[in-house]
């Protein structure tokens, strides 16, 4: 069977089951260890029968158990890098890339303001003393936020990033540690109930906390999420706002003056989080949208 025939057959099954047809491309790309572009470029080549059978099996499992492809394959791409995932961590979401982007913009502005040179700036002063930026990721899960920020910032030669990442789940931290090793970044991972294991101050606190209400969990979640992401990663107590409230109220003790607090928020949660931050000693509180034009990120600076 040709690659194109296999893709056509599996996409048809996915379409009939109301699932994303693109999943068939993701599966073949994983099985063939090639990018989706490379797979499509070779679509007239013959597919070996082992690969074909594996692909069929995986797509059938995707449909019959509503299991996300990333949980079956154990891998998910986030911000251009592959991360290991399993049932103990939230599947990385594309919308979370908006949080990375928003935080990187702010950090780069800061780097510019303090005069640390980027590799892109001609004549960068390599003998300048590195600026240390301390970042805390609360509820790191698979580690995507901490690791992506560390990787993106490592190209800036004159800044030194000290990254701390916490989670209450030991099993999630195990995955995050493997991902940090995979990407060659040094992160101080700590088991912690929010700030419990934190006793220092940071320039940036970032968090994509559990933000679904108990009601939404019980009544509104798709089976892909409800049955395959850990409840611990999803539910922010009864209202869904528990972690925002806790983190906003306490972060002033863990942020340096002028430090940045940045959240991912759920659909329609931005207004309340923005209001709380503005009332609680944060300035320049801003809301940013994700690629689907949903208000997804709220961030602001601790007033000096
Ligand atoms: C929505 S997931 C985010 C995971 C990852 N940062 C991401 O963006 O994909 C929230 C994470 O918070 C963790 N968590 C839940 N309760 C926590 C608590 N009390 N303290 C710290 N982390 C917690 C969960 O285990 C989960 O890994």
């Amino acid at each position: 069977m040709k690659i194109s025939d296999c893709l056509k057959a599996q996409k048809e099954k996915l379409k009939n089951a109301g699932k994303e047809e693109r999943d068939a491309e993701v599966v073949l790309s994983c099985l063939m260890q090639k990018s989706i572009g490379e797979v499509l470029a070779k679509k007239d080549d013959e597919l070996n029968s082992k690969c074909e059978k594996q692909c069929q099996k995986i797509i059938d499992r995707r449909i019959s158990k509503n299991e996300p492809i990333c949980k079956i394959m154990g891998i998910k791409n986030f911000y251009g890098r592959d991360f290991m995932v399993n049932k103990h961590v939230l599947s990385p979401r594309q919308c979370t890339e908006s949080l990375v982007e928003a935080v990187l913009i702010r950090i780069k502005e800061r780097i510019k303001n303090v005069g640390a040179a980027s590799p892109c700036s001609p004549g960068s002063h390599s003998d300048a003393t590195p600026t240390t930026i301390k970042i805390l990721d609360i509820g790191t899960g698979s580690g995507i936020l901490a690791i992506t920020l560390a990787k993106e910032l490592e190209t800036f030669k004159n800044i030194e990033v000290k990254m701390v990442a916490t989670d209450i789940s030991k099993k999630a931290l195990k995955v995050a540690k493997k991902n940090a090793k995979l990407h060659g970044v040094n992160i101080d991972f700590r088991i912690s109930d929010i700030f419990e294991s934190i006793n220092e101050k940071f320039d940036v606190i970032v968090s994509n906390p559990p933000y679904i209400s108990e009601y939404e969990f019980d009544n509104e979640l798709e089976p892909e999420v409800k049955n395959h992401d850990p409840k611990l990663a999803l539910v922010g107590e009864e209202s869904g706002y528990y972690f925002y409230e806790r983190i906003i109220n306490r972060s002033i003790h863990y942020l340096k003056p002028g430090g940045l607090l940045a959240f991912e928020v759920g659909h329609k949660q931005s207004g309340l989080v923005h209001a709380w931050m503005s009332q609680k000693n944060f300035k320049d509180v801003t809301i940013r949208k994700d690629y689907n034009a949903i208000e997804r990120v709220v961030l602001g600076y601790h007033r000096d």
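The first helix runs from residue 3 to 16. The pocket of S-adenosylmethionine is lined by residues 90, 92, 96, 138-142, 144-145, 166-169, 172, 192-194, 208-210, 232-233 (CB under 6 Å).
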